[in-house]
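Handout, section B. The chain below has 113 residues.
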Amino acid sequence: MAQTALSAEMMACIQACRHCQRICLNMATGHCLEKGGRHVEPEHLRTMLVCAQLCGTAADVMTTGSTLHRQVCAVCADICDACISSCRDLDEMDECIDACERCKDSCEAMTSE
């Protein structure tokens, strides 16, 4: 049985999710831990780690070609939005904010594909 080819938009979303996963995980365990202060507040770190995990999960689900990606992408977009809000009030978090915004926008588009 042949697997259905993924659309260009879905492939771009998978890439955006993988990128966001790497950036959130790297910044949470690198920049934030080194910066200290508000950057290491439990809720902020949890949000970043959950965002990284869910972005990876969304990419995995889309890779399977399952139509369940719509639900996972909707949750991923919500978590990315929460991560953006959490990072926005902290300094030197632009890379994370940018990655989350791209992932959020892409995942929102996938909820109807």
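Note. DSSP finds four helices and no strands in the chain. Compare this with the example in section A.
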